[in-house]
Design brief:
two-stranded parallel ribbon; 157 residues; 26% strand; Chitinase A, domain 3; Helix Hairpins; elongation factor; 3 helices; five-stranded mixed sheet; alpha/beta
Length: 157
Amino acid sequence: MDKYPMTSAGHTALEEELKRLKSVERPRIIQAIAEARAHGDLSENAEYHAAKEQQGMNEARINELEDKIARADVIDVSKLSGSTVKFGASVTVVDEDTEEEHVYQIVGDMEADVSKGRISISSPISRALIGKEEGDSVEVNTPGGGKSYEILKVEYK
């Protein structure tokens, strides 16, 4: 069984989603199925079939979350330090072509969200940054072509 690195914040978010699915969504779907059943003939009851489909998707997501939580290797980023980029680091980089600054936190695959600045440890940018320090330049091969970044700051928060 493989373990996957995950920040404590990402682990908490998965646990909260699992709790919501079990305590809120599951009873709501069961109620919807009961109401649809009361309408009579199930073979042509669209509400019943929709509720059963929702139930299947909800249970699949619950199983998926339980698996991810069980295989999580939770790392408390606040206890990490150093000047080298590693898992959990918040890295401020500047694009050497456009002079745009970006801040990325390197997180586990299951909690990555580029819109919030969290990039997966297995992404091309993360792989290029790992092991580097402030002031280093990195080349990243992206689907849109090569990019050059300079590391301005490495911090763990």
